[in-house]
Q: What sequence folds into this?
């Protein structure tokens, strides 16, 4: 099987956008990699891309190529423009790159950066059919066409098909998931169960502070699982091939839960 790599571009620092890659990873599997985590600096929105930065990003991409199933290349806001430049320079060589997902929030800066990203990628030869727009932080009661006017305009100009249903509303508690560092993909695929960890912590007399923090994680887990079907539908609506929890658990590493350190909450 040839690896299929998806690039996810964040255009804001909202909790939802930070966790989108974990949601995609939960239902598509493969590697989850990010320039944020590989120890190198690849750029800042106001920095000019450097040759070292391009080489470092290429090395990270090559790491993802080692997986037979590919995965998600997650790009935080502060690395967005550097990665866009990398894609402009290297796009003809990136045969495994099948999809680019651009997350956009209602704020004007996010929508403007989304427009810049898709314009640059289209100019570099990226097919509109390979691009997806994911609306994050969507306000309830307001049509997405109204909340994301600039984003819709950019999409029309670049002939990218968008769906108003591909959205993450503010009702999903991404802030809690991020604050309590809940491993989204592992929870959605039953690779870990925080309820079981809480029961074990109580039975073994863990410190009250640890148990209290773990209880917060359990509530966040319950909210995440309650939203699981909706999240799965959104990923499917973007055209991704979904995998089962059994397939995900067979290849994905399980996060270290630090069970031997009951006085530490990760």
A:
């Amino acid at each position: 099987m040839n690896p299929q790599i998806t690039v996810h571009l964040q255009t804001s620092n909202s909790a939802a956008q930070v966790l989108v890659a974990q949601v995609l990873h939960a239902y598509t599997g493969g590697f989850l990699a990010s320039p944020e985590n590989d120890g190198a600096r690849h750029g800042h929105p106001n920095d000019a891309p450097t040759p070292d930065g391009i080489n470092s990003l290429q090395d990270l991409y090559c790491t993802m190529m080692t997986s037979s199933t590919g995965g998600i290349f997650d790009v935080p806001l502060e690395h967005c423009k550097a990665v866009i430049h990398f894609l402009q320079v290297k796009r003809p060589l990136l045969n495994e790159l099948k999809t680019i997902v651009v997350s956009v929030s209602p704020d004007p800066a996010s929508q403007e950066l989304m427009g810049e990203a898709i314009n640059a990628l289209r100019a570099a030869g990226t097919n509109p059919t390979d691009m997806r727009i994911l609306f994050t932080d969507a306000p309830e009661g307001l049509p997405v066409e109204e909340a994301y006017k600039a984003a819709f305009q950019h999409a029309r100009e670049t002939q990218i098909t968008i769906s108003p249903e591909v959205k993450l509303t503010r009702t999903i508690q991404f802030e809690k998931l991020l604050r309590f560092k809940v491993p989204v993909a592992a929870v959605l695929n039953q690779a870990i169960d925080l309820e079981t960890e809480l029961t074990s912590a109580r039975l073994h007399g863990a410190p009250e502070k640890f148990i209290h923090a773990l209880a917060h994680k359990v509530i966040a887990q319950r909210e995440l699982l309650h939203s699981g079907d909706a999240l799965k539908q959104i990923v499917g609506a973007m055209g991704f091939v979904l995998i089962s929890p059994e397939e995900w658990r067979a290849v994905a590493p399980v996060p270290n839960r630090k069970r031997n350190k009951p006085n530490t909450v990760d």
In short: The first strand starts at residue 4 and ends at 9. The two ends are 35 Å apart (CA to CA).
